[in-house]
Structure formats: C-alpha cells, structure tokens
Amino acid sequence: LGLVGVPLPMAALHTYATTFSLLLNIALAVVMLVLLSGSSATTDNLRMVPSMNMQGISQQGSLSGSRTAVNFHRRFKFQPRRKQIPPNKWPVRSGDKVQVISGKDKGKEGEITKVFRKTGYIMVKDVNMKTKHQKPMGEGEAGAIIEVQKPIHHSNVKVIEKYVYQNPTPATAQ
Question: Using 50, 70 and 90 to split pLDDT, how confident is the model at 166?
C-alpha cells in the first residue's frame, strides 16, 4: 500500500483490485463449501444422483439407473423419421406385368400404370382398390360410393414380364 499522501500509479491500483477480487472469490467459495458440508440434510437434497443403500436400490424406492435409461430412450422417441431413399436402379417401370407377392391382393396380376420414384410406390391396374365415399357437390346432386385405385410399394410385387418398347411401324400403302 502506498504511504499517506503519496498517490499510487494506475498500474498498481489495477493489480491491487485484481488481487482483491481473486481473494474475495476464494473466500466466497470456502464459505459455500463450509455451508454445504455443514449439515447432511441439505446435501441429500442437493445431490444430482440418488444415494444408494446396500441392495443397489435408491432411497427414493426405484431401481438404480432406471432414471438414466428412461431419459436415454426418450431422446430418440421424438426424432423425425428418416425418409427412405429410393433405389438408383429401379426393378420396375411403367408397362411391366407384375404379380403381387404380399398384402391383401396377394396373387393378383396386373400392369404398372404409374411409378412414383420419390416415394417408391407404384400403381398397378385393378390392384389395391379402395372405396371412397364422395359427398354431393352441388344442390340436387346425390353422393356416391366409388372405387379408387391406390398405389402399393414396389417391394410387394415381382415382375412377370418386362415391357419392351417397340417403334410403331408405318402402315404400308396398297
């Protein structure tokens, strides 16, 4: 410390302030440790992991580690589902004759009318027909129950006959 009446330089004041701040932080840390270790009732409430008795069961009454397992699986429960990546080389194309190998239409044969490459679904003629209840649109018009064709996954069919494109032959003049 400087003498009475003699001013201290700014660098010395900065050093003293830093040292004082460090000593104050150490003193506060020591006080907190003394307070926390003083009574066992307060430390039980502040623990992150429940204390165990001899059988491996926590004092709250549940099995040890069960809380961790629940949280671990909960992390993955609400993850968004990944989209299936469509194959690079498709086993089917429009015009192929296919047979359904699984599902409610198993054994039926039909021709592929449309291929949805992004989703992996295909439309097969007269396969996977669903009934749709259509509301009346205008006044005086009656509702209807119509059959609509829905797509099925390409893995549920096998190709019977491949489609081969043939150039149309021009008609010969007679």
Answer: confident
Q: DSSP states of 41-69 as a string? A: HHHHHH-SS--B-TTSBBTTSSBTTHHHH
Contact assessment for residue 46 and residue 36, using Cβ atoms and an 8 Å cutoff = yes
Angstrom distance (rounded) from CA 125 to CA 97: 10
Query: Rg of the chain over CA atoms, in angstroms?
Result: 39
- Nearest 5°: CA angle at 131, between 125 and 137? 115
Is 124's pLDDT higher than 70?
yes
Give tens-digit pLDDT for 68-114: 555 666 666 666 666 666 667 778 889 999 999 999 999 999 999 99
pLDDT tens by residue, 49-60: 555 555 544 444
Task: Indicate the burial class of 154 (C-beta count within 10 angstroms; 0-12, 13-18, 19 or more).
Answer: buried
Q: How far is CA 26 from the centre of its chain?
A: 46
168: phi then psi, degrees, rounded to nearest 5: -70, 140
